[in-house]
Specification:
Radius of gyration: 36 Å
Number of strands: 8
Number of helices: 9
Shape: elongated
Distance between the termini: 112 Å
Helix content: 40-55%
Strand content: 15-25%
Strand order of the largest sheet: 1-2-5-6-7-8
Length: 329
């Protein structure tokens, strides 16, 4: 027999059990939420580190690509194509269907001979237009190939306008936002010189991002010397990448690169673009190294690049005239 008191005690025990279950569920919910939050934080941390590493690689590893030479000679030596003869293949088939038409019993019963003949005649006209359009496309394609051959011949002859046009159309120079801000090409007594506006020191990141053992991201200000080294690597990498694009796109054995970057003029307090690196790069030298594993600064040194740089001050201006380059013209 269950008394009311026993019943009441039973109710109390049940309510306490429900309370414990609710608190346990809440603790589990909070634990799950914290776990998800931690996972999200770890994911965000990992992403932040990955984005930083990607940015540094874009700044200092732009030169780590394969040198692929574009074949201009084959195109340049291709004979000009004569305008193609017009063909009336589709029109002939449609005309043959019209000429072969013979009204059947149903055509005669429903008196639709005229409509059928008119429809077949329309198909002849449509086929004629189709042949005309195909001929126009063939003429345009032949003219395009002839134009390509003519442009290739001008490139082979080192026509400045043709070479600049080839760089704009076929190189990846326009897709290097993390390496350069602008490029001019100089043609000087048989020399080809790329004058490049490189990134400035202020474009370099001010802090590094690393992943701790706990999985959290650690943000630390870059030491001044490290930031200057990063800028040096970015300038060297950009110079090499520009050289690679020139040598890969144009029929050249060598190219010179003059890198500019903003430097502080102590006398005026203004930032002015100044030459900071000159390097001559040959196809033979690039083929002798594994570009994918090279350090930009070390490779520029190996190639005999000229710069004035210190860990304390960074880049100092070099004299472009010493290399026969007049930037005032």
């Amino acid at each position: 027999m269950v008394t009311s008191r026993q019943f009441a005690r039973g109710m109390v025990r049940t309510m306490r059990a429900m309370d414990r279950a609710a608190k346990q569920a809440e603790r589990q919910r909070i634990a799950r939420q914290n776990a998800l939050h931690r996972e999200a934080m770890l994911g965000a941390s990992a992403q932040a580190v990955a984005e930083y590493d990607e940015m540094v690689e874009a700044l200092t590893g732009a030169h780590r690509v394969n040198l692929r030479k574009r074949d201009w000679l084959t195109t340049a030596t291709a004979p000009d194509e004569a305008p193609p003869q017009r063909k009336d293949t589709h029109q002939q088939i449609a005309r043959a269907n019209l000429d072969a038409y013979s009204p059947g019993l149903l055509d005669m019963v429903f008196r639709r001979q005229a409509r059928t003949m008119a429809a077949l005649a329309d198909k002849v006209e449509a086929a004629r237009a189709q042949d005309e359009e195909a001929h126009a496309r063939a003429v345009e394609a032949a003219a395009g190939r002839n134009a390509q051959a003519a442009a290739a011949r001008r490139v082979q002859e080192r026509d400045p306008d043709a070479m600049v046009a080839a760089l704009e159309e076929h190189s990846d120079l326009g897709r290097l936002p993390f390496s350069v801000e602008g490029i001019d090409t100089m043609f000087l007594d048989g020399r080809i010189i790329a004058v490049v506006d490189g990134l400035d020191l202020e474009d370099m990141p001010e802090e590094s991002v690393t992943l701790l053992k706990s999985g959290k991201a650690s943000f630390k200000a870059l030491a001044a010397g490290k930031r200057l080294e990063l800028h040096r690597s970015a300038i060297c990498s950009a110079a090499l990448r520009v050289a690679i694009e020139f040598l890969g796109t144009l029929p050249l054995d060598e190219v010179e690169v003059l890198m500019l970057t903003d430097l502080l003029d102590a006398a005026t307090g203004h930032l002015d673009g100044a030459p900071v690196l000159h390097v001559r790069v040959t196809e033979q030298a690039l083929k002798a190294v594994n570009l994918g594993r090279t350090d930009a600064y070390a490779l520029v040194e190996r190639l005999g690049g000229h710069m004035s740089w210190s860990r304390r001050e960074g880049f100092r201006e070099i004299n472009a005239a010493a290399f026969g380059i007049d930037l005032s013209s």
